[in-house]
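In response to a reviewer's request, we include the raw inputs and outputs for one of the modeled complexes. The four entities were modeled together in a single run.
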Amino acid sequence: MRFLLFLGQRLALTVPTLLMLSVLVFALQHLLPGDPALALAGEDMDPDVVAEIRHRYGFDLPIWHQYWNWLLAALQGDLGMSLRNSMSVVQLLLGKLGITLQLAVASMVLALVIGIPLGVLAAARPGSFASLAASGFALSGISVPHFWLGIMLVLAFSVNLNWFPSSGYTPFAEDPGRWAMGLVLPAFVLGTGIAGVLMRHTRSAMLQALGSDYIRTARAKGLREQRVVLKHALRNALVPVVTLGAIEFGQLLSGAVLTEQIFSIPGFGKLLVDGVLYRDYAVVQGLVLVSALLFIAASLVADILYFVINPRLRS
Amino acid sequence: MRILALLLMLCCGGAAMAQGTLRIGIGDDPDALDPTLNRAASGRQPLTAVCDKLFDVTTELKLEHQLVTAHEIAADGLSVTLKLREGVRFHDGERFDAEAVAFNLNRHLTMQGSLRRTELGALAGTEVVDPHTIRLLLKSPQAYLLLINLAERAGMMVSPKAARDAGERFALHPVCAGAFRFVERVPQGRIVVQRFDGYWNRANIHLDRVEYLPISDSTVRLAGLRSGELQIAERLSPTDLPQLRGDTRVTSVATPDLGFHSIRFNMANGPRQRIFGGDIRIRQAVELAIDRRAMVQALFEDQYTAGNQFVGPESAYYDKAHPVPARNVPRARALLREAGQPNLTFTLLVPSERERQEAAQMVQAMLAEAGITMKLETQDNTSLLASSQRGQFDAVFSFWSGRPHPDGNSYSHFACAGPLNDSRYCNPELDALLTRGREATDEAERVRVYQQANALLVRNVPHVVVWHRRTFTGISKRLAGFTPHPDSTIRLVGLRLN
Amino acid sequence: MASAALAGTLQPAADGRLRRVLRRLRRQPASLVAGGIILAFIIIALAAPWVAPQDPLASSFLQVRKPPSAAHWLGTDEVGRDVFSRLIWGARTSMLAGLIPVLVALSISLPLGLLSGYGGGWIDMVLMRVVDAMLAIPFLIIAIALAAFLGPDIWNAMLAIGIAALPIFVRLARAAAMSVRAEDYVEATRSIGSSPLRIAVRHILPNMLPPLLVQTSVMAASAIIAEASLSFLGLGQQPPAPSWGSMLNAAQRHMAAAPWMAIAPGCAIFLLVISLNLFGDGLRDALDPKRG
Amino acid sequence: MSAPLLSVRGLRKEFAVGGLFSGGRGRVVAVDDVSFDLEAGETLGLVGESGCGKSTTGRLILRLVEPTAGSVRLRGQELSGLKPHAMISHRRDMQLIFQDPYSSLNPSMMVREIIGEPLQVHGVDTTPGIDRRVAELLALVGLGPQHMRRFPHEFSGGQRQRIGIARALALEPRLIICDEPVSALDVSVQAQTLNLLRRLQAQTGVGLLFISHDLMAVRYIAQRVAVMYLGRLVETAPTTVLFDAPLHPYTRALLDAVPAPEHGAAPRPLLEGELPSPLAPPSGCHFHPRCPFATARCAAEAPAVVEAAPGHGVACHHATTLPAWPGLSPALTHPVEPRLARLLARFHA
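The model returned the following structure tokens for the whole complex.
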């Protein structure tokens, strides 16, 4: 009951946030220099065509009027039409969501598989060489510019060694092998950064857990060290790590801009950069809104997870 | 990591690739796949596979028939009669006939947001003579120009039924009468087309399926080609070509491009015309300070062509009396002194695209040696379009993709009323020449007119043409029957994968 | 430069505290090495005109994209300039890119955080909605959009990064203000009858700084990467002036043919950023009151 | 007879609680109908377990927290309901000394600024004047003028507490509320500080409200003691009376729980059962679930404060019928804990 109430409060707060967000994005992109109608009018740029396009997309209306029209349509689930390829923004986003989700999940799995064990290792044997190496890896992961790492990996593994496809995305249904190969490098690039963050948090949470009374009790009972570390300490240390992971995942959904650009993955990020460059207003607006929704949903999941995992809050 | 890679490679090897699938890496994600609304050059690639045109141009840029079997220009030049190919069907089974042609031309002229109106500017109306004969009525005697334009997107024929049913959403699933029918599109991902068995020229189609994959980076396209993911990679960067040496599986073919890169001066557009709008000696000095050949050599491995006119030096319309001038820094300095501008300073507007960014920096260095300070201002393409139209530039580094008919390279850009004339250069003498060029049906006459137009522009220097690109297409040696085309659109007829 | 500013700001507050922090830092060899690297970068950036072997803008049409040699230690770039010299001059841009956005973000977020965390009420409510909205958009997206709006220019890019970093900074500043507000000395000054303005300026503001300053080195690291990203997209440093990000932008087209153009600036960014992060870690540990 | 220095009547404070996880609004009565007087030059000890509302009472008097109801009079002048600007002139008459000498001094200010701030705020003096006064105050608390330009972190806990006391004295207040002023200090420093307070009181005639959970410290410094339980005063009496013949079962329990000094630090659990949640206090007499003498009446009806003897108020239905108090444990019969006593003796000298 208390939980439902809390959930309701959180949901109610997202409404003004989203509204504020849509105003921000709308204002921001309409402040961008350049005239989308000119870009849309083709190489010949016939002035009549330009005027026609302006009128057709309502660019000749006052900006508040444009916003109002957009808001009304958006409330009915219509996010407008892409200026660039005449597709409905909702369809466009739905098409991309799958791809972006796949990349995000792949990166997250990689990050969890690397980050948490390394964090446990670093906490269990502080000062050891393994611990130092793990910390070094984590630090490198958060310090390397992702786009540069991407370029270097393409250079090494695709261009020179030819192990992985250098770009593009293949649907799973068509060729599972290619699909997997295509995700490896971008997932690695995105995953290392998150792995670094997760590793550092796992380590500090583990260190705290290992220093606490119940671990001392467990050790005093004569439990094997491995069991103490994995069973008792890790379970408690995971609480903050899991919530952090959910938030990182939320950011992945829209944060992979440059990585998608470099690997030519047709996800949210690439759509966004192209949208900004071509002043495809409806796409940018819809995209930002949807990724913000996803982000908010992910942080909500983080809160729920926190609530579910943390027994102190449940009672 | 390495073990994972090996494992994945193993399962990857197991999945055999579909026989007869051609994968083409293209440079940009195409916009709307509708002949009437398509804008970017990249859209022409898949559209050419899906939609046949009334005419086509040969690699020598001569007009040839495609869905038309014969044409006749009336003596007064104000109408053209077209005989249509019989037995042609659209992908949805609809019949291709004179009514369909009339529908299509009318659609280009009247559809909201149509980008074909300029190309069909001379067309007044159509007249269906019989199911396989149609007459085009012209406003002015510009028949040849019109027919050449019908060899482009304006001549692509879509199924009237499908177009009516889909309305604005036609671009999501184009239905035409080409050799391949549209299957699916993942925006920014790929466009897939499948062989159309009802195609009139079925015997010469040897591919089952073609996929167009937008990959923006030339190096990555090339890597895809070399790894066998792609069989064709369009528009390779000349700087990537050295990598192909010694590769036995792939090769590259080159063909001169129809377009040109030029630095356009603000002649009369708004307050910023004051630097270049007046004294011609200042523009000449800028031109003389640039070493086009050195630039082409340093930046493009000597693979592009230095140029100074709106067609390349190999074109018949090129005025050989005005060859590319050699660099002359002392003369440039002298001209500037005479014009009272020994310390000329101006800003060049450049798009963020790398090729022009690099060239702009080199031009900057070259001009500096002549005492000219050129600042660079970068804008993304959309902003740059708006700035140039509003005259917010001293000079702008522009690019034109080129058209088979020289009118496409000149009228819009240099005629007083040309929609692309952001310089606002206006010369009645040139206007007269360009109008005569439009109406010339005779090739010799056209050559004469456009050579004169070129000579005039070279003398007046409203812009400095710097180079003409060449299109490099990387192809797998498995591919047979490929001929590069100067309009850089890949024709699929006759292609075979071994 | 960021750490110099950091030390500079700590000085007047408490030189005894600074000494204690330095003493604790000295016990962490990794942070010391990182601090040394940062210092070296600062010196190189300041001394660029004397350190760089060649003019970073001088291009040679005959020496385009040449691999590393005795004349050009790190090779030449796409218009024949010395990559090594450009790398050295580019350090200036990257150092500024670490410093300026942080200063921008700090100077805006301190008063806002104070207003929100100490003032509370509807201002806090509205501000937090805006911050939430901004936090829901990835940092880089805001930076890209703002930089595109302001026009491609390195100063605009830095401003854009600073503004994009605002929501995080405002959150931190607000949290700092709230925790300072709960301190006894704030109650003490209230019991005297000090005005809210005096409490805010004399008591809360100065004590909000230390927790924020600990974040600056990590923030500077993010800002440097963000500048590189924007320049990589052509929205930052404009040609021909060098920055590590714009060098990467130029290198991308010649990735296969001239990899040295990409490797050197990438490594420089990595080295600087990892040093800042490491130094930040050390600083945090050294300032942690729970540790000896 | 003139009005007492401080007169508190029916003071009440309710806090609204409603966080994210509490799921709805609740009310906590932190201070419930508290009344007492304090004379000039007198020290009143306010004791009780942590969380009983004694610190809140102090802050209500100072109007650092707005009371829900009740009246606070300073020298007969009603304070509750005064607007903030009207409150300012009264603030110089009342000061606060904090428990934690670390968090109560602004780390970014020099000692001179910390002690001088009250003077500055009340426009007392010019810069040289402030410096002179700060030096005087430092001397008063046993510090030297050389300390003026130092920062708080350069001082020990006891020295910091002296700075806090100097700050409280700066405006020559009539009333100082000491909120657990020694509980964060080492025992030896505690003694110094208590003696300092006593000496200062003797010199200035200031009234002290000494809030503490440390009964022995209260016994040493206070003339009268008020005992608080879950927001209510349960017993008020002169110190000697309270320690010799406490009437309320809770007071007795508190006294029983004072650790025998020979056994050192850790105090035994105070009472059977947990302290009830202030969110849902027990009905009737709040103490009845833990009280060995509780009857049905205790659960039903809250006892009013009755005067058992002049100056001795108690709120217990059974105050008159309880068995006699056996007295403090023998070890504690000495008014002050022996070790503390030894230390105090040394500083008296």
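As requested, we also summarize the result in words. The longest strand of chain B covers residues 123-130. Chain B has a mean pLDDT of 90.
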